[in-house]
Here is the input.
Amino acid sequence: MLQLKKLVKTYRTGDQALKMIDLEVPDGQVLALIGPSGAGKSTMIRCINRLVEPSSGEVWLDETELTRLGAGALRRARRKMGMIFQEYALVERLTVMENVLSGRLGYVGFWRSLARRYPQKDVDEAFRLLDRVGLLHMADKRADELSGGQRQRIGICRALIQDPKLLLVDEPTASLDPKTSRQIMRLICELCAERGLAAIINIHDVALAQMFVSRVVGLRFGEIVFDGGPTELSPDKLTEIYGEEDWEATIETVEDETEEAAPVAAVAP
Amino acid sequence: MPVLTENDTRIWRRRTTGKSLVLWFGWLLGLAAFVVCWQRISGATTWFFVQDAPRIAGDIWTRATPPRWEYLSQLGKPIWDTLNIATLGTLIALVLAVPVAFLAARNTTPSKLIVRPIALLIIVSTRSINSLIWALLLIAIIGPGVFAGVIAIAIRSVGFCAKLIYEAIEEIEHAQVEAITATGASRWQVMAYGIVPQILPAFAGVAVFRWDINIRESTVLGLVGAGGIGLQLSASLNTLAWPQVSLILLVILFAVVISEWVSAKVRGAII
Here is the structure.
């Protein structure tokens, strides 16, 4: 469904963030993208919805090639790709409801959106989503009154109300505590399963990734160095992705995952 | 390189010896310049008048007190004009300043090479000329009266407001803009949802702050014939009607205190 072909991004400073990335994500697959800081994970998902313009290569979403779209067509394509951010990126001074409904901006005209007159079915859907993530009672609160975990749930609602086919998730748990991180990851994966969405999740926490996803892709210096199931990640593979480090503890956490209080090992850079 | 090695121990000082010397020399130079300037000013002053000053000031004070209270009935209209000049001028300035600010901010300007310099030029040129001078120019163009005053205040304020607003735009959190862009929102929607909410507090603060300043500025516009209470002030000064002058100054003080109070309240309510 999503296909990256020879995707290259070279920043103006000369840094090659992505070197010839080839990747295919089938319908409904949740994929974790791991790799050290600066490996190009954020750049890669931003090249898909063109928040960052790729230098060359192709991005196919179903039958559409995204890198050559004009402004209007790109906006229509973006509606099909929901994005979730590390620092939630909610508009702090707007209410929760306004933030959720802003996911519909691609479907609603300018004046209607300015007057906040969204179609009733959008509003219904917003309430349904808020209920699903357990924050219905917060609808009228301002976004900056919420805790980190709550904000990320609102971020998820905003992405889902777009009615996307694909979720681009950029470090969803990096600003959250271990327990909330798991809850958020579980929520994202559950929602993807419910709606049959594909997702690319950038994540630092290898153990957390292994816990929830069916496929892991490892990125190092802008190249894919690992692609496989979560159980195939051995210490050798992690060394290849991240560099030399004692990995036993990281992988062990996965095995006694049932214990809710299990410490989530930090990943050394 | 403040880390030096002496007798095998590494010592750290804030500045190297050379830098310290330069700094001291700089201070010395500054002090010398100050002394020279002082001497020059002193030489160019007619000290007789300065020694006389307390006596003259006392004389004016006795002439000016008590204020001529019955004159108050004639000041209602001019002070109302003054308030209107300030308020209308500020509103017009804000309407003009917002687009200029968006064109000047690095992250929203459509073109860094052409449009941004033009916007910055507008900001600098309107800011650098005093509203009194704008009023003089405008009176020559559109004739004396309140309208010239309104336009003078508006032009003078555009640069000020635009500068503060564009700085606020440059400081917004980019992630929120990215998030709105990622939903497929159009350019204008990104502006309305991603940028405007973030700069709204700054905008409101700038608006009341400039209104506050404009009330002070518009009180003197009448001196050159651009309407408002300054007209009465200049007439009273010219006829040496000191009790009227003191009353006008009291009225201006009162208006300024009120505006200060209002803007403090508004700012408190927003932030």
In short: The CA atoms of residues 7 and 88 of chain B lie 73 Å apart. The longest strand of chain B covers residues 3-6.
